Amino acid sequence: MVALLDAARQLGPSDGLRAATYTTLFGLLASTGLRISEALNLHDADVDLDAALLTIRQTKFGKSRQVSLHPSAIGPLATYRALRRQHVRSSLNTTFFVSSRGVNRGEPLGDRQAHRMFEQLRRQLGWVDRGGHGQPRIHDIRHSFAVRRLILWHEQGADLDQRMLALSTYMGHVKISNTYWYLSGVPELMALVGARFEHYADLGACDYE
For residue 43, how many C-alpha atoms fall within 13 Å in the half-sphere facing its CB? Predict the structure, then answer.
């Protein structure tokens, strides 16, 4: 993510909004685990920096929710908002992220634009496939958010079963089983699942003895 944000900061033109748009967008995805569609559909009124809160409306499954922001995200979002207002006319109905070039200047930043820019930067950084799909995807930022949060909780000795519901709600999962999937997503968490299985297997063996 550090490399991706550094590359996004170098996007031209130097006096434009493009670099700030993609740096802020990718940073927001990394710090909140939002779906790309959720981030692009944010309106200016949905980003309450005083309350450190995002309002996500009519998401993938037709539900709305509120997402709290980490304090480190407030400054970059405020800086982008101020810069955007210098470049394009804004209102509460303006989408938070806007296109800054050509005939689409000031219009909502499109899904295709965001994916195309991610792919451009991915090629520039020389990223290669390390998983079950062809190339790293923008959606993988959301997966990384969930996995890193679970690993951190595990390292802190937190009860993951208790935290799962909060994470599921925060990420907008319809079923908590979708959140539990992340436990099998990386070796560190798979080891945790294996340890739990051995624990319950030992308990079962004791019942038969």
Answer: 8
Catalytic hit among 35, 80, 84, 170: 35
For residue 182, indicate whether it is catalytic.
yes
Cα 49 versus chain centre, distance: 17
Question: For the chain, how are helix, strand and coil distributed in percent, rounded to 5?
Answer: 60, 5, 35
Handedness of CA 91, 21, 30, 171 (dihedral sign): positive
Q: What is the chain's pLDDT, residue by residue, as a tens digit (209 residues)?
A: 999 999 999 998 887 899 999 999 999 999 999 999 999 999 999 999 999 999 998 676 667 899 999 999 999 999 999 999 998 887 778 899 999 877 678 899 999 999 999 999 999 999 887 666 668 899 989 988 988 888 888 888 888 888 888 899 899 888 888 887 777 666 767 766 666 556 555 545 444 44
CATH superfamily membership of 2-125: Intergrase catalytic core (1.10.443.10)
Active site residue 115: no
Residue tagged active-site, from 9, 57, 60, 85: 60
CB 108 within 8 A of CB 95: yes
Asked about 142 being catalytic, the answer comes back as yes
- The active-site residue, picked from 139, 143, 149, 154, is 139
Q: Domain ranges in the chain?
A: 2-125, 140-208
